[in-house]
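Each record in this resource describes a single protein on a pair of labelled lines. The shape at a given residue is found from the number at the same position. The record below illustrates this layout:

***
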Amino acid sequence: MDLLVVRHAIAEDRETFARSGQDDGERPLTDEGRKKMAQGARGLARVVPQIDLLASSPLVRARQTAVIVAEAYGGIAIEEVGALTSGAEPPAIVEWLRGTGASGTVAVVGHEPDLSWLVCYLLADSDNTFIELKKGAACLVTFSGEPEGGGGQLKWSLAPKHLRLLGGARA
């Protein structure tokens, strides 16, 4: 299995949105975030030609990011996964991954610092994070067997700027 880890794109400012009285889970992407993610998703499709399963946190900003990624892959389906909600812990995500039975490429869209923690857990079975994903960034972790803590290998990690360049954006 290959695990494509994608952090959600640029969302509205947390503090400004909080003043609206709405729950933070409803905080959407900005227009700039949508535009940059569309460019980045095109780049993502160049380096990962196929996604077999696309999963997203149920929070609005992650779902909106997943929709953009899905469109870059011809409109593939998106599965909402509670284990990817902000505050998720790596063992819960690994348990979900194992339950999918997927053998190809699984993409997950979620939040920081959860995704960095997940990647570090998968690479080194560590609670200490040594990688940070910027908004709209992605990395690919591969497994020779079932996903487990310390069982993954980092194939690559790309900043959003690099994904956009791969997607045809100008520097």
Notes: The CA atoms of residues 139 and 157 lie 4 Å apart. The longest strand covers residues 152-158.
